[in-house]
Write a structure and sequence with these properties.
Largest sheet: 6 strands, parallel
Number of domains: 2
CATH topology of the largest domain: Rossmann fold
Helix content: 40-55%
Bound molecules: nicotinamide-adenine-dinucleotide
Number of helices: 15
């Protein structure tokens, strides 16, 4: 009796371990055997495509800028000259483009993916775009019996290089399960946010909050310095107190407080003010449609519009601190 119970206990303990062992073998096989198309090899897309190759995938790339294509070619990627050509060669495609018009062009344009997409293809768009554009592209994909997922990312260029992105995925469960082992080559947190467009919805809420917190940290550090406080000391205080956030701790906007972040490198690299302005305009568009009260999001949008009309457009979005300190 005791023996029987022990065997039962041991087998129920082993079951999930054995199952997860098989699951990880399946995931590994999926990783090894796929050819994946990648379009948009910029700050984020380039390192993501390289991480797919490091995980054993064959990658076919496309971008309108020759130098970034050549960079991937040197690493062993094949090249397609148009999105349509790429879609005719592979059944899994990832796109990482600047904004909604670029995504519409690459998917729905004359040489776009949808024109040549193979039946049963999986299309994953990791760009940050409007949820409504994501839904429009998804409905065109369905007409061709292909699955489209919106899968914008959180985490900047360093997370992209280190394969530590978070993916916020919208789309059906089957597509999500198919995409998961592929996304795990590039990220460590893969969230299923619900139906198509919900990944984009989660992303623009997060980035609206990020812009607000970055402006807040910059104001506090400026005020502190004007009161005679050392910014590193003040950041230490904030990071052990209730004002602590990602913008104060990990991505501090004051040069020299945190090593290796854009503020310590002349605000170069990272996430541009132009892209933050775009995300804030997506948030305002969504707030208008849903009649949501977002006064701080609206002000943050105005602040980044102003930054982009000056010399800050291509600098990292933490350069709001530089703008605030400008007269000092
Ligand atoms: P990027 O401008 O560096 O890269 C975009 C790439 O797309 C470029 O190489 C460009 O040549 C290519 N491209 C544009 N139009 C194309 C077309 N028609 N066909 C083929 N290629 C085309 O932008 P990024 O910083 O890599 O950002 C990409 C997306 O990721 C954006 O939506 C951004 O909001 C989002 N994002 C960026 C960061 C970041 O820290 N940079 C973080 C999270 C999310």
């Amino acid at each position: 009796m005791y023996m029987q119970r022990s065997i039962k206990t041991i087998s129920s303990y082993l079951k999930p371990i054995v199952a997860s062992r098989f699951l990880s073998l399946d995931a590994k096989r999926a990783k090894e055997h796929q050819s994946i198309g990648f379009i948009g090899l910029g700050n984020m897309g380039g390192p993501m495509a390289k991480n797919l190759m490091k995980n054993g995938h064959n990658v076919i790339v496309n971008d309108i800028v020759d130098t970034v294509v050549q960079d991937l070619q040197k690493e062993g990627a094949n090249v397609a000259h148009t999105p349509a050509e790429l879609a005719s060669k592979v059944s899994v495609i990832i796109t990482m483009l600047p904004s909604s018009p670029h995504v519409s062009e690459v998917y729905l344009g004359p040489n776009g993916i949808i024109q040549a997409v193979q039946e049963g293809s999986l299309l994953i768009d990791s760009s940050t775009i409007s949820p409504s554009v994501a839904r429009d592209v998804a409905s065109e994909a369905i007409k061709k019996n292909a699955t489209y997922l919106d899968a914008p990312v959180s985490g900047g260029v360093i997370a992209s290089q280190n394969g530590k992105l978070s993916f916020l995925v919208g789309g059906n469960e089957e597509g999500f399960q198919r995409a998961k082992p592929i996304l795990e080559c590039m990220g460590q947190n893969i969230f299923h946010c619900g139906e198509t467009g919900n990944g984009q919805a989660a992303k623009i809420c997060n980035n609206m909050l990020l812009a607000i917190s970055m402006i807040g940290v910059s104001e506090a550090l400026n005020l502190g310095q004007n009161l005679g406080l050392d910014p590193t000391l003040l950041s230490d205080v904030i990071n052990k107190s209730s004002g602590r956030c990602w913008s104060s701790e990990i991505y501090n906007p004051c040069p020299g407080v945190v090593e290796n972040v854009p503020s310590s490198k002349g605000y170069h690299g990272g996430f541009s003010s132009a892209l933050m302005k775009k995300d804030l305009s997506l948030a305002q568009e969504a707030a208008t449609i849903t009649k949501s009260f977002t006064p701080l999001g609206s002000l943050a949008h105005q602040i980044y519009l102003m930054l982009c009309s000056r010399e800050f457009e291509s600098l990292d979005f933490s350069s709001i601190y530089k703008f605030i300190r400008k007269d000092k």
